[in-house]
């Protein structure tokens, strides 16, 4: 009979560095648009797995020697290729035992109805604003689970001010996938406490001032992720030369909303987009770099 240890062992064999199993009962009260039980009503648990992003990608961005490899290999390849193969193989193992496996990978270009945020990693996002329930009492498709909530319930970590999931051993240098299943697996305890201690390092590190004590403004982030700050090594002297707000923009002082951000995107094509519409990261993910360094310092001081 399939058990939790077999799942975790297979996940590690396939390339995950973390694997936790959460009880779907803990999603009680969650918005139906985010609830895994809306996807598999007879589900019993959710399996969460973390795939590592090589830390060397962050080092090369920090040294400004390479930027494109983080986007092409650390984001696009992991989410669009590696994660799919990983999920299909682990899902097949579950379904070979007679259970359902609803595979959940990152859907970077899609937002549930009512979600007005964006994903800075991709060219554009589409809100499912015209979707409607197929029957009374049903959620509006597509249901997209909250990865941060799922990671906590699986015992893996919690979300920081910068919007990334933080884990004790790997900081934020991870991409996540989940499987909702009706297999009766032994569940782990949800993650207790908070990994984010509100140190504010990510707030200070963000070149676009997209992060505050209230979290991250995704539209502001999207502009500076694309390289609107003067720290971008690909920026030339004539960048936005006729724009009266040029200095405010390159100094990270200009505030953007969805419309003003979209209007500036055509001027931010410093490197080619990758396949599937992922845009190059030119902010160096400084928020994640300082966060992971902070987590390591806490661990060395025994402050976990």
Spatial shape: globular
The percent range for strand residues is 5-15%
Helical segment tally?
A: 10
Number of strands: 10
What structural class do the secondary elements suggest? alpha+beta
C-alpha end-to-end distance: 36 Å
**Which blocks of ≥5 consecutive residues have pLDDT under 50?**
none
Helix content: 25-40%
Q: Please state the CA-atom Rg, rounded to the nearest Å.
A: 20 Å
Question: On the 0-100 scale, what is the average pLDDT?
Answer: 96
Number of domains: 2
Order of helices and strands: HEHEHHEEEHEEEHEEHHHH
Walk across the major sheet and give the strand order.
1-2-8-3
Q: What kind of oligomer do you see?
A: single chain
Largest sheet: 4 strands, antiparallel
Protein described:
It is a single chain. The chain has 304 residues and is α+β, with helices and mostly antiparallel strands. The chain has two domains: 4-181, no CATH class; 201-300, no CATH class. It contains ten helices and ten strands. The protein has helices spanning 4-14, 36-39, 55-62, 68-96, 147-153, 201-205, 218-225, 246-250, 258-264, 286-300; strands spanning 18-23, 45-52, 101-104, 110-111, 126-127, 158-159, 165-166, 174-181, 211-212, 215-216. The strands form four sheets. The protein has a four-stranded antiparallel sheet, sandwiched between helices. It has a two-stranded parallel ribbon with strand order 4-5. A hairpin with a 2-residue loop joins strand 9 and strand 10 (215-216). Helix 1 runs antiparallel to helix 4 and helix 7 runs parallel beside helix 9. The longest helix has 29 residues, at 68-96. The radius of gyration is 20 Å and the shape is globular.
């Amino acid at each position: 009979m399939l058990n939790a240890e077999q799942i975790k062992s297979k996940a590690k064999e396939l390339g995950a560095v973390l694997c936790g199993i959460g009880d779907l009962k803990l999603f009680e009260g969650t918005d139906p648009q985010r609830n895994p039980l809306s996807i598999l009503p007879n589900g019993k648990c959710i399996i969460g797995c973390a795939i590592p992003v090589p830390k060397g990608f962050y080092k090369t961005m920090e040294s400004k020697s390479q930027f494109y490899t983080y986007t092409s290999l650390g984001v696009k390849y992991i989410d669009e290729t590696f994660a799919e193969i990983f999920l299909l193989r682990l899902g097949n193992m579950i379904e070979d035992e007679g259970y359902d496996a609803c595979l959940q990978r990152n859907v970077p270009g899609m937002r549930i109805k009512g979600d007005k945020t964006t994903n800075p990693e991709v060219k554009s996002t589409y809100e499912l604003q015209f979707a409607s329930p197929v029957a009374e009492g049903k959620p509006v498709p597509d249901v997209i689970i909250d990865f941060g909530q799922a990671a906590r319930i699986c015992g893996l970590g919690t979300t920081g001010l910068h919007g990334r999931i933080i884990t004790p051993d790997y900081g934020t240098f991870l991409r996540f996938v989940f499987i909702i299943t009706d297999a009766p697996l032994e569940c782990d305890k949800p993650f207790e406490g908070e990994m984010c201690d509100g140190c504010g390092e990510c707030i200070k590190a963000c070149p676009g001032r997209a992060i505050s004590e209230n979290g991250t403004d995704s539209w502001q982030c999207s502009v500076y992720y694309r390289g609107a700050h003067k720290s971008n090594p690909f920026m030339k002297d004539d960048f936005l030369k006729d724009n009266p707000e040029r200095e405010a923009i390159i100094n990270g002082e200009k505030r953007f909303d969805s419309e003003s951000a979209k209007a500036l995107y055509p001027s931010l094509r410093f490197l080619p987009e990758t396949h599937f519409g992922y845009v190059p990261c030119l902010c160096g993910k400084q928020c994640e770099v300082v966060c992971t360094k902070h987590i390591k310092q806490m661990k060395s001081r025994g402050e976990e």
